[in-house]
Request: fold
Amino acid sequence: MPHMTGRRVRSALVVMVAAGPLTGIVATVNARPAGAAVTQYADPSIADPTSITPGPDGALWFTNNANDSIGRVTTSGVVTNFTDPSVSSPTAIAAGPDGALWFTNNANSSIGRITTAGVITHFTDPTIVKPIDITAGPGGALWFTNNASSSIGRITTAGVVSNFANPTISNPTSIAVGPDGALWFTNYSSNSIGRITTSGVVSNYADPSGGPSNVTAGPDGALWFTNHGNHSIGRISTGGIVTHFSAPGVDSPYSITTGPDGAMWFTNNGQHSIGRISTSGIVSLYTNTEISNPLGIAAGPDGALWFDNVGSNSIGRITVDTLPASLPDEPTNASASTIGPDGVSVGFTPGFNGGAPITAYTASCISLDGQPTGTVSATGSPILVTGLASKHPYQCVVTATNLVGTSRPSAPSGVVWPGTTGSTCGIPSAPSTVSTAPGNASAVVSWAPAASGCVAGYVVTPFVGSVPQMATLIPGQGTTTVISHLVNGSSYQFTVTAENGSVEGQPSRLSGPVTVGTPSAPTALQVAKVGAGAIHVAFKVPHNNGAAIVRYTASCASSNGGATRAKAGIVGPLTVSALTTGRTYTCTVTAANSRGTGAVSARSAAVKA
Reply:
C-alpha cells in the first residue's frame, strides 16, 4: 500500500570555489546566509535505492537493489512498490521514449521495462552481461552499459538488442546522451571517457585523474562526470577536452545531474551530503542528518532535487532557499552573424547570474588568421562588435560579469566572415596537389590551397583502401600538417577538404599511397659465444615498412651482474664484445630507418659470455 513519512529540516552549507580549471587549487568563499530544506521519505519497501529518475506521470521512480523491486514516489511523498520475479538487483532506471520506465537487472543480466501502471516486461539476450546504467538515446532506442563484458548495448522499445564492443571500452559504468547526439560513457577501469555514435563508432578520451563514475549532459554544451576515485568533479567538452574541479569536502561523489538552476548537482557519498557545482566551478556542499550515503540524484518535476539514501533506505528531497553570490555561469549558445563591412552581431543565452545581478556581458571576436580582435561590453544580447577585418574568419565568445567577478568564456560561436553576405563566406573549392611523407606512426600531409571561396580550415582524412579513417580539422589557412596515430606498417592515402566554418567544399583527389612506420621488430634471434666476453647475435631481417633500414643495434644484458654492452651495424649478424666473461646474457635487437628506431625484439635464449 502507498505510504508516506516525511521530515523537513534545515541543512548546513559549505561553499568553495575552484580557482580555475586545475584540480586541487581551491579557495574558500565567505557566503551570505544560505541553506537548504531536506525532506526524507522512508518506507519499509525501500531497500538500497541506487538510481532515481522523473517519470512521465509526474512522479519519481527508483530502483530497490536489495529487494529486487522498482519503487515510485510522488512529489508529496507517497511511496509505491512493484515486484516481479524477473527483477533482479536493479541498478539504474530511466524514462523511455515509449512512456514507460526502463531499468537494468544487474544480477540476471537483463533489461526490464515497467509501465506507469506497474506492468513489468523482461528482455534477455546473450550480449547483455551485468548491465549497470541505461538512458534513452536518439532514434527512440535505449542504450546501456555492459559492465562485465566491456561493451555498450542498445535495445529498441520492441526489445531488439544490439551490442557494440571495442578494445577501448573497459568496464563501462554510466552512459548519457551528449549535446552532439552521441552517447557518452565512463570507463571506470581504464580511467577514460568514451563516446559512441548511434552507428557504433567509438572514441576514447583519457582521464588521468582516475575513477570516472557517472556522466550526464550539462547546460553548457559539455558533459559533466563524477570522479569517485579521486574525489573531484570532471567536465569534458564534445571535443574531448577534460577539466577537473576539486574542493575540500568533495568525497567519493557518485551521481550527477543538471539542476533547475542551471548548475550541476551531485551526491557526495563519502561525506553524506549533496553537492552543487556551477558551470564556472563554484562548489557548494549541503549537509544534513537526513542525508545518508546518497547515490542517485535527479531533478524532479517540482523544481527540487531528489536522491537515493542508501544508508537509511529512504528517498530524499532537497530545495535551496538562497544561493550564495558567486561567479556567474558562462553564457551559452553563442552565435555570430555579419553586420556591415566590418561588424558582427553576437547573440547568446545568459546563464545563472551567480546570485547577483549581471553588470555586463562582454563579446570578444577573435581572428583565426592573425587579424585584430574586437571586444565590446553591453547589458544583454545581441552585442554589436565592429572594427573587424573584412573577409577574414572570426569566432566570438561571451563572458558575464557580476559583483564577484567574470565568468569563464562561452563556447565559441561558429566561424563568421565580416563583410560577406550572411554568416559565412562562399563554399571553398577543392584543394589540389596533395603530397605525403611517411613518419613513425604518422605522415606529413601537404597540399595546394583552395583556389576560391573562404577558408577557415582544412579537414584531412586518411583512407585505408577505400575506408575513411578519423578525420582531423586543421584550423586556419596553413597547407601542411602532421597526421599522427597511424598504424605502422599500414598504407594510407589522404584527401584534403577546405571548410569555411559552416560548410565543407569538395574533397581533393586522393594522394598517392604511403606506408608509414619504423621497421618491425627483428625475429628469430640466435646467440652463440664466439670468444671470451663476446656473443654472436644473428636474427631475421624485419619488414622495413617502406623505408630502407639504416642501422641494427644488438644489446646484451646480464642476469647475474655482468656489464651491459651493445653493438650497432648496417647489416647482421652482429658481435657484441667486452662482456663480462662467465656471466649469463640475453640479447635483443632493434632496427632503425629514416623515421626512427622500431620495436625491440623478443629476448634471445640465455648464453654465457
